[in-house]
Amino acid sequence: MSTRLTSMPGELPPLPALPGEDDQRFDKIRKAGAVYVDKTRFIQQMVSGRPHTFFCARPRRFGKSLMVTTLESFFRGEKSLFQGLAIHDYMESAAFSEHPVISLDMSGPPASQGIQALNEGLAFQIKVNAKRNGVPICGENPTAAFGNLIFDTCEKSGPIALLIDEYDDPMLKTLGNDEIQEQVRAILRDFYTTIKVLDKMGCIRFVYLTGISKFSKLGVFSGLNNVRDISFKDEYATMLGYTEKEIIENYAMYITAAGKKLSLNENILMERLREYYDGYFFGGKENVYNPLSIALFFENNKFAPYWIETGSQEFIEKFLSRRKISVGQFENFSISPDMISSPGEITRSLAPEFLLYQAGYLTVRTKTIDDKEYNYLTYPNYEVRAAMVKLRSKNFFKECQNIVAIQQKFVILLNKSAYAEALLEFNEVFERLPYDDSIDKDDVEKTHAHYRGPLIGFLYGSEVFVDTESHSNRGRSDIVFECGGKSYVIEFKVAVGERKCRTELFKAMTQIVKGNYTGRFADPLAIGIVVDEKVRLITHICIETDVYRVVKRKLQPMGKLKDLKIAKASKSRGK
To answer: What are the helix (H) ranges across 463-560?
Structure first.
């Protein structure tokens, strides 16, 4: 079920505020008449059951905070905001009762600045909640004040609903600084253990925690009784994020508007949305879309990697910077079923695939072999894979600002149909690869990947649509990207010396034709590129049938591809 409040006939309803903004609250969204995808049936599931303490892990920017503010309005009995929503009838029944709310946003305290900053941040949140519930602040430190806040609020107004958003954020902010993190852990352990004591005293009706990971020794999962982890429970799989059906029902007018703006029919638009933003799996039978990316897409009517651009990736960058990893190693990464719900605590020693899984860069898939199901991790969608490539590309390029300028120039040249000149910009990328980066010349695949990886990162950063190793009915190309309605199909080779480079260029173009690499693309352009390993730069390019040699940053036309073939054959006969 979905609901929008009133808007003028023919006008688009307001989009919801973005996660992280102050207006990204349930009450403000409803009062503004903005798009709201109804998730309140999941609240009824939680409050109607036997357990009363829940934990839900989701990646950043996935609507966790919106659910927290929805629970706030629910327990405060703000019934008018729930008119027409799934839970409204329940709120009008005898089963419903109001409760005072204590709500903490643990992403607020700046733990990375030290213990004093963390304590001041906690004290401020306690002050806000004390004022909201009409009780005094009692206690010399945040832990004591927190315990008194719960007790005094319960004494005044009855058992409380305790909502803790991003409970693990102080730990993530201090990742890599072991000394400060251990101090943060000690403070939070005492702080969270207080909940157990007050729960035993009957002061707490309901607890809901969100975060990215389970951190042990914080007094949450070991201290609280019967915490139900619903992160990967089938019945809560679509509680956060959007199903495709929910997008179609709630954003119908926006889908029509975007289709007109982008000159795409609605079926193709939805297919592209699916490719870009769908694919997260948290159990059940349905994938979900990232809600932030969907809202930003409809705001801008543009396909772009919004997720990585809206919020800090600092803890991921720090973690990955110490490891030699490739983007491709996480495709179809097999895991055991128990690792899905217990991927491990985020520490320096955690395997990178499980950090990336918890942070939202990887998701779970299932495949069946001989009637047996196997679980594996992979990138959920194009947007996230692009985010991962861009993160890894930072290690390739030392002059990031210059790279941005080159990317902009590259797209401008493509739009001017100056294709060879645009491809020449790839050498600007290769010139920035550190000379001492290892290349195993005996391993063709690794040598190929040494150049191909940074090139793909450059293309992702150019905000063209990239499809690596795109499969046809007879093979797969190295790189396909789309820009301005045209598809560029690239076969990439590495050789040494003029003669071998020409031979490899001819092979590349032959491979494109025989493999039917361009067959399924609209307005395709077949391109062969050869890097001469001796100079570690592109030295030969073929665009359709036109061949160029690159000499000192300049393009030197060499005629048609058929002439290159004749020259090769003549040389063979001369032997």
So the answer is: 498-514
C-alpha dihedral, 193 to 197 to 200 to 201, nearest 10°: -150
Reported as a single tens digit per residue, the pLDDT across 259-312 is 999 988 999 999 999 999 999 999 888 999 999 999 999 999 988 888 877 665
What separation in angstroms does the CA of 549 have from each of 33, 448, 527, 533, 561? 60, 20, 14, 15, 12
Alpha-carbon distances of 70 from 162, 240, 333, rounded to whole Å? 13, 12, 36
Rounded CA separation 302/397 (Å): 27
Tokens of 3: 């609901």
Q: How far apart are CA 115 and CA 440, in angstroms?
A: 47
CB–CB of 241/291 below 8 Å?
yes
| First-to-final CA distance of the chain | 77
pLDDT for 385 equals 85
Closest CA to 87 of 26, 178, 162: 26
Structure confidence at residue 238 as a pLDDT band (50, 70, 90): very high
Residues facing 438 on adjacent strands: none
How do beta strands 486-495 and 524-532 pair? parallel
Instruction: Please state whether beta strands 537-543 and 546-551 pair in parallel, antiparallel, or not at all (unpaired).
Output: antiparallel
DSSP one-letter code for 121: H
Crossing angle of helices 444-461/382-393, nearest 10°?
110
**Sign, Cα dihedral of 337, 340, 344, 347:** positive
pTM exceeding 0.90: no
Query: Measuring CA to CA, how many Å separate 563 from each of 106, 504, 514, 547, 573?
Result: 67, 15, 19, 9, 15
Kindly state the DSSP code that residue 518 receives in the 8-state scheme. T
In degrees rounded to 5, what are phi and psi of residue 268?
Answer: -70, -40
Strand pairing of 101-105 and 479-483?
unpaired
Residues 244 and 525: their CA atoms lie apart, in Å, by 33
Distance of CA 502 to the CA centre of its chain: 41
